[in-house]
Amino acid sequence: MVQDVRTLQVQLEDRSYPIYIGRQLISGRWFREAGVPAGRKLLLVTDEHVGPHYLNLWTEALEEAGYRVFTHTVPAGEASKSLQTFEDIITFALECGLDRNSVIVALGGGVIGDLAGYVAAAYMRGIPYVQIPTTLLAHDSSVGGKVAINHPQAKNMIGAFHQPLMVIYDVDTLKTLPQREISNGMAEMVKHGLIGDVELVDLLEQSMEDLLQLSPDGFEDALEKAIAVKVAVVSQDERENGLRAILNYGHTLGHAIEALSHKQGEPIIHGEAVSIGMIGAAQLGVRYGCDSSIVERTRVLLQRAGLPTILPRRIDADSILRIMAHDKKFKDNQAVFILPKGIGEVYIQTGVPIQWVRETIDQLYGEV
Ligand SMILES: NC(=O)c1ccc[n+]([C@@H]2O[C@H](COP(=O)([O-])OP(=O)(O)OC[C@H]3O[C@@H](n4cnc5c(N)ncnc54)[C@H](O)[C@@H]3O)[C@@H](O)[C@H]2O)c1
Ligand SMILES: [Zn+2]
User: Fold this and answer.
1) What are phi and psi of 259, to 5 degrees?
2) CA 187, CA 193: separation in Å to the nearest integer?
3) What's the pLDDT tens digit per position in 40-50?
4) Is the CB of residue 146 below 6 angstroms from any atom belonging to ligand 1?
5) What is the pTM of this model?
C-alpha cells in the first residue's frame, strides 16, 4: 500500500528522473512507471546491516511485479567502496547474465549508492540503476549522479557521473538507523538549508528535536526541501563546472578533519566533521562581511542536531593545513572557500589567506 508520495524531478534533458519521497514505498510500481518491463533482470546490491531489514521485502515486491531478481550483499562500511568489491559485483553480474537492459538497484546508504552506481556506470559501458537510499545522509548522495569507489591512496578517486533512473526514498527505512547516523545526515540537511533555503533553516530551528525522531509530515517537509536544494544545484551544473561547488559548504575544513580523525583511529564521521567545518565557514564568512549572528545561529542548530561544533585539540591546525595543501586546496598560499552571505545564501570566495584559515581553525577549538 503506497501512501502520500511527494515527487521531485531532476531536469537534465534525456537524463531527467523522479525522486519519490514518502512512507511504505516498497513496491514494483515505480519500476513499471519508469518503463522497466516485466521479465527484466534486476540486481539488488545492499550491505550486511541493511539487507536483514529490507532485502526480502524489496525482492518479494519486485518479483511480484514480474522481475527476475538477483541479490548481492557486501560488508557494511566505507571499505566496501573498493576495487575488489567492484570486481566481485561485476563477476556476479556476469554470472547472472545481466545485460544492457538489466537494472542495478542500490539499496542502502551512500556507500552502496556510490558503489552500485559506479558498477552500473561501468558494466557494459553503462546500464541503468535505481537509488533506494536508506540513510539520512543519502538524501544527499543518492541525488546528482556522482558515483565512485576509493583508491587505497584517495577517496572517491575512481568514479563517474551517471544519473540514476529514479530515486525511491522510503522514510520508513530510516527507523532502523542508529541515532548517530541520523545526526550525520542532519548535518547535510542543515547544509542544504544554509546554502539555499531560509525556510528550511526556519523549519529545522522550529522542530529539530521532532525531526530527529522522524516526526510524521514535518520530517517529509524538511527532507523534501533539503533534496530540492540539491536538485536545483545539480540541475544547473550536472558536472561540477561551477555552481555545484557550493554543495561543499563546510566540507573544505570538514574533509581534512574527517581524514585526520580516521588516521588517528578515532573517527569523526562525515556529517560531524562537516558540522565543525560549517562553523569554520561561518566564522570566515563574518571576516568577509557576513552578519556575525550567523555563527551562533549555526552553532545552536547543529548542537540541537546532536552534532559537534568544537574541534578536538587532537586534530591540530598544522595537520589540517597540510592535508588541505595536499588536496590542492591552496594555491599561492591562498584557499578557495564557500562562504555565507547570510542564512540561505553562499558564494565562492577565492584568495582566502592561509593565515585567516589558521586563525579560523584556532577559533574552532573553543574557549581555553
Ligand atoms: N555521491 C555523492 O554525491 C555523495 C555525497 C555525499 C556522500 N557520499 C558518500 O556516501 C558515503 C557515506 O554514506 P552514508 O553515511 O549513508 O554511509 P553508509 O552507507 O556506510 O551507512 C552508514 C551505516 O548505516 C548502516 N545503514 C544504512 N541504512 C540503514 C538502515 N536503514 N538501518 C540500519 N542501518 C543502516 C550502514 O550499513 C552503515 O553501517 C561515503 O562513502 C561518501 O563518500 C557520496
Ligand atoms: Zn557531505
Assistant:
1) -60, -45
2) 10
3) 999 999 999 99
4) yes
5) 0.96
